[in-house]
């Protein structure tokens, strides 16, 4: 089904390209790029479940191609992805983006597979719902699968920006395989997860977002109606997991106030489904001491409070937690930066520490180091307790062509 | 005695008058320079930034800058990075304000995130270069107070004192060329301790539309760190007829995608 869909998209892109060549004699820009990445993840604690491995060497490839014409107001953009990993489920490929876009005056239209980000906070991305999370790719959930969509954006000078999304196809989340870490005792095959909607993945979903700013205040209000991106887990008395994708209505609010070196942030959602409705929020601030040494060193301090009414059923286990962290940017020619932080549960002592650092070498190499440490994870944490032995280090090196 | 007092009063008055004149004349020069550049509407330019450390090692960045002229308030600008490749598509949108903090948004292409950022950090280096953010932001008359210092042939030297206490400078000595549309020839930057920090030289000037002077080379030398940054501009495009819609958060994402 997926292949067929992509075929249609390509066909459609072809039609637009032909049209462009006939109608527009102006300059056409092509751009091809390639990133090759080798990665090593090492889980230093003995695995909790059978068959789980400790060492995960891995390789990824990310090709990109873009063509634009009509002074850049029309374009076709492609981003591909492939990863080879010890965990069979983490070995996967995806079309992150493949879309045609046209912009004219106060509107913009995109058609195809695209990635859209909503939100302002750092420790959790509640409001961001357009794309399915590529859950096997990263722990922080910031990697996303390409989402088929038609997006229409209307820009006004006084009333802000209005975004309308038509989302014709739902993509399931992939979970770690037998050999993989960060999983439940039972390996979840994504194909086993059912849909609430009888249309299954072809349920026609819609979303809307209004975004504006007034002086120092940036605000976003959004609504999504369709099959949720997060599966809903039901645990029965015998410990079996019954999971499915519910049809949800989700309203989101994003708010940021930028005052001097302070960023005050709030994200909040209300999600409603037949099986579950709940409220969640992240609120916090970021303060940056900039150019401390007169040489460009910036040190930012972050603090956020996380609340989720689902309590222990919250998939990300952030039900009543505090995040604290620091972002250090050296602003040197190598763009060296470090993000350290921790999320701690206010009811138990469960804490996850994290570190992410990156630096460029030469003009086309980058290196990244990441660590996630699960500390004192409470045995009663329904979801997080499964990951209590899954602290890891990751190093990756990328070459750009 | 009466005569002496009278002489002192007269001297003080003259000095005051001179100071007033110097401030007045400095402001006039800044206004003349601002006026000479009015009416360009919008521009697009490619530029190559070469950073050189004290050992002579260099690294390069390629950028595209789009600017939209505003009359009532400061200009709008959109900067897109094309290299290094790992940051390709990273873009900033800045609304300069004549008075108060600028509004600034950053687009991160890897996660497609638009982020409102603080424009508080004026004195910090722009992408590891010797240019501070404030050196590259739109130069509005209201951002400084002025003292006229010297006239050397066509060259007028004016001291500019930043109004914003967050500026990294106590003063800048700016050399204007009054015969060439009050274009800038040189700027010397004095740090918060009032010692010479950097010198910026403008060269390879080109006249566009018979009115707008654009230096195609900017050379900044940091005297304290011995690091240098050279900006080499391509041809300015004044014909793109950019509009307000080209300087929105939607346009920011489009530029960096």
UniProtKB/TrEMBL annotation, chain A:
Keywords: Signal. Residues 1-20 form the signal peptide. This is Porin. It comes from Aquimarina algiphila.
UniProtKB/TrEMBL annotation, chain B:
This is Outer membrane lipoprotein-sorting protein. The keyword Lipoprotein applies. The lineage of its organism: Bacteria, Pseudomonadati, Bacteroidota, Flavobacteriia, Flavobacteriales. Residues 1-19 form the signal peptide. It comes from the Bacteria. Keywords: Lipoprotein, Signal. It holds the Pfam family LolA_like. Residues 74-254 form the Uncharacterized protein TP-0789 domain. CDD domains: LolA_like (cd16329).
């Amino acid at each position: 089904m997926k292949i067929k869909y992509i075929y249609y998209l390509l066909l459609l892109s072809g039609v637009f390209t032909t049209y462009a060549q006939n109608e527009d004699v102006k300059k056409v820009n092509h751009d091809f790029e390639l990133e090759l990445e080798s990665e090593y993840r090492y889980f230093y604690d003995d695995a909790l479940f059978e068959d789980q491995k400790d060492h995960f060497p891995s390789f990824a490839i990310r090709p990109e191609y873009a063509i634009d014409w009509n002074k850049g107001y029309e374009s076709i953009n492609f981003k591909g992805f492939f990863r080879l990993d010890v965990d069979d489920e983490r070995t996967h490929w995806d079309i992150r983006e493949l879309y045609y876009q046209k912009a004219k005056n106060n509107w913009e239209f995109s058609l195809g597979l695209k990635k859209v980000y909503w939100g302002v906070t750092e420790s959790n991305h509640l409001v961001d719902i357009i794309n399915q999370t590529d859950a096997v790719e990263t722990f922080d959930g910031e990697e996303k699968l390409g989402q088929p969509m038609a997006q229409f954006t209307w820009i006004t000078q006084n009333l802000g920006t209005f975004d309308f999304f038509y989302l014709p196809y739902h993509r399931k989340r992939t979970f770690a395989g037998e050999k993989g870490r960060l999983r439940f005792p039972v390996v979840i095959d994504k194909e086993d997860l059912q849909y609430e909607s009888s249309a299954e993945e072809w349920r026609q979903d819609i979303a809307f977002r209004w975004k504006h700013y007034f002086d120092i205040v940036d605000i976003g209000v959004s609504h999504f109606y369709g099959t949720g991106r997060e599966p809903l887990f039901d645990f029965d008395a015998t410990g079996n997991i019954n999971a499915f994708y519910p049809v949800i209505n989700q309203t989101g609010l994003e708010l940021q106030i930028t005052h001097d070196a302070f960023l005050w942030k709030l994200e909040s959602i209300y999600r409603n489904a037949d099986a579950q409705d709940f409220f969640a929020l992240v609120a916090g601030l970021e303060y940056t001491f900039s150019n401390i040494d007169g040489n460009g060193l910036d040190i930012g301090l972050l603090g956020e409070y996380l609340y989720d009414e689902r309590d222990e059923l919250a998939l990300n286990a952030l039900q009543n937690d505090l995040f604290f962290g620091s972002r250090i940017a050296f602003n040197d020619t190598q763009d060296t930066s470090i993000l350290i932080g921790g999320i701690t549960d206010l009811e138990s002592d469960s804490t996850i520490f994290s570190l992410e650092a990156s630096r460029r070498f030469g003009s086309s190499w980058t290196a990244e180091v990441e660590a996630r440490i699960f500390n004192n994870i409470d045995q009663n944490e329904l979801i997080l307790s499964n990951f209590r032995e899954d602290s890891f280090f990751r190093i990756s090196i990328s070459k750009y062509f | 005695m009466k005569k002496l007092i009278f002489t002192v009063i007269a001297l003080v008055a003259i000095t005051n008058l001179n100071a007033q004149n110097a401030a007045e004349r400095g402001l006039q020069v800044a206004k003349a320079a601002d006026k000479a550049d009015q009416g360009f509407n919008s521009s697009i330019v490619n530029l190559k930034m070469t950073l050189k450390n004290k050992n002579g090692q260099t690294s390069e960045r390629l950028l595209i800058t789009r600017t939209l002229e505003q009359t009532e308030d400061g200009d709008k600008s959109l900067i897109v990075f094309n290299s290094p490749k790992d940051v390709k598509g990273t873009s900033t949108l800045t609304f300069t304000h004549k008075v108060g903090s600028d509004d600034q948004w950053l687009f991160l292409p890897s996660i497609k995130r638009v982020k409102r950022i603080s424009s508080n950090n004026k004195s910090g280096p722009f992408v590891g270069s010797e240019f501070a953010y404030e050196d590259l932001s739109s130069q509005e008359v209201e951002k400084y107070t002025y003292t006229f210092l010297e006239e050397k042939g066509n060259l007028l030297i004016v001291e500019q004192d930043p109004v914003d206490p967050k500026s990294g400078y106590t003063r800048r000595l700016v050399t204007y060329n009054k015969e060439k549309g009050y274009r800038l020839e040189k700027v010397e930057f004095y740090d918060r301790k009032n010692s010479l920090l950097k010198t910026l030289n403008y060269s390879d000037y080109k006249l566009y539309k018979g009115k707008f002077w654009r230096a195609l080379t900017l050379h900044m030398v940091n005297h304290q760190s011995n690091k240098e940054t050279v900006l080499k501009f391509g041809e300015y495009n004044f014909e793109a007829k950019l509009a307000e819609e080209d300087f929105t958060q939607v346009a920011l994402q489009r530029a960096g995608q």
